[in-house]
Amino acid sequence: HLSMLDPAVDLQPFGKPRLRQAFRQTRMVHTILRCVRRFDPDVIHLQQGHLWFNLALPLLGRFPLVLTIHDPKHHVGDKGARNHLQTVMDFGFRRADEVIVHGRRLKQVVVDRLGIPSEIIHVVPHIALGDDTAQSHIREEDHLILFFGRIWEYKGLEYLIRAEPLITAQVPEARIVIAGKGEDFRRYRRMMVHPERFVVHNEYVSDSKR
């Protein structure tokens, strides 16, 4: 998506080490702090936060901080999120001067869970992601059900798979397409009463494949 950036945007990419690489993470945080101070912004906008960078937020206290909270708490079964300690994420959330969430229900969760004042939480609906012109010529197929996205317990894929016999009893031509990646997919395959009714793409699906 670099070609879509306005020339006025000063993009400064940085390496992102594994979370368990403490020395490299510390060096990354130091690099970002140095870049921020050199740029001297009027405001900092942080997306969700980061296990290591959150700990450095007090060092940027002179800059107003806007933080977008996508997930106020870890989702059930999301093993990937376990690498980010909830207490550290909460610490970052509470450092924000203003908070953005993508739904009214999420706003209430932030108020109830974190005690953040309602008046500094702003609800901004989520925009559509990806290239809106990609695959615009695709024709929809009849009797096709699509599950698309991260495959973790909280997404509820289990219930769609278990509902397949009920669905195909009413619509015999129905097929279910599952596209995405996440936890071990073998447990979901074992749930399939009629595996031939499913088309599975257990992988990250890029814009070009959508």
TrEMBL record:
Keywords in alphabetical order, please.
Transferase
Read off the InterPro entries from this record: Glyco_trans_1, Glyco_trans_4-like_N
Ranges for domain Glycosyl transferase family: 134-191
Q: Name one Pfam family in it.
A: Glycos_transf_1
What GO MF terms are annotated? glycosyltransferase activity
User: Where's the Glycosyltransferase subfamily 4-like N-terminal domain?
Assistant: 23-126
Respond yes or no to whether keyword Transferase is given for this record: yes
Provide the GO biological process annotations. lipopolysaccharide biosynthetic process
The name of this protein is Glycosyltransferase subfamily 4-like N-terminal domain-containing protein
What organism does the record attribute this protein to? marine sediment metagenome
Instruction: Tell me the organism's taxonomic lineage.
Output: unclassified sequences, metagenomes, ecological metagenomes
